[in-house]
Amino acid sequence: MRTLRFAFVKTIPVFLGYLVLGAAFGVVLERAGYGAPWALLSSVVIYAGSAQFAMAELLVSGAGLLSVLVTMLLLGSRHFFYGLTFVEAFRGTKARPYLIFSLTDETYSLLCALKTPDGMDEKRVMLLIALLNQCYWVLGSGLGALLGELLPFDLTGIDFAMTALFTVILVDQLREAHNRVPALIGGGCSVLFLLLLGPDAFLLPSLVLAVTLLIAGRGPMEGRGARR
């Protein structure tokens, strides 16, 4: 119970964001002609917010299955890099496949900043955080689909809830970090490719460059962090 309570407290910001965004996805999917069962199924099996929103738009436009699969793969490509970060952390646990599957942007951010109290099983905390976050998303999408007909409001800008959540998590990590060089590298790569390629194509190349630079400079950066 103590572990579950700790994990729940850590996921409260995600709960608030996922409930709203999940409901928005449910509404979008319902208006595309797919009811609550499809919203729940996609949130359990796919569990990727941006990809699910894109899927709804593609279904409305009558896109073929191949187009949907390729789009989903491209939108989820950043999760390959997320998984690489936790290869060692997830080793030795039977829940490893699910932990890899559940690495959404928000779960990844929480796990990166996770510090468990003494005597608490870190892998169990990770699993509970991942499970709780997915439950929030499934709950939100189901409610949104069920209430879709009763919610005729404009959804424009609702995704800013996740931007605000990321900002809070980033500020918290920067305050506790001994070495801010990785954050500067990631931010610099993102800004560079955003200016060069625009908002629709900057993410993957900026991740590739940032990971390459971080791997190349891992030794000096770890040494700098240890000295501090």
3D architecture notes:
The chain is mainly α and 228 residues long. 75% of the residues lie in helices and 0% in strands. It has helices at 2-31, 36-45, 49-61, 65-75, 78-85, 96-101, 105-112, 122-147, 160-176, 181-197, 203-216, 218-227. Helix 7 runs antiparallel to helix 8 (122-147). The chain is globular, with a radius of gyration of 19 Å.
| Number of helical regions | 12
**Main beta sheet:** none
- Uncertain regions: pLDDT < 50 for 5+ in a row? none
Task: Provide the succession of SSEs.
Answer: HHHHHHHHHHHH
C-alpha geometry: globular
- The pLDDT mean sits at 80
Structural class computed from helices and strand pairing: mainly alpha
Question: How helical, in percent, are the residues?
Answer: over 70%
DSSP strand (E) fraction? under 5%
End-to-end Cα distance, whole Å, is 36 Å
Cα Rg: 19 Å
Number of strands: 0
List the main descriptive attributes of the protein structure presented here.
228 residues; mainly alpha
In short:
With 228 residues, the protein is mainly alpha-helical. The protein contains twelve helices and no strands.
Topology:
Blueprint: H1 2-31, H2 36-45, H3 49-61, H4 65-75, H5 78-85, H6 96-101, H7 105-112, H8 122-147, H9 160-176, H10 181-197, H11 203-216, H12 218-227
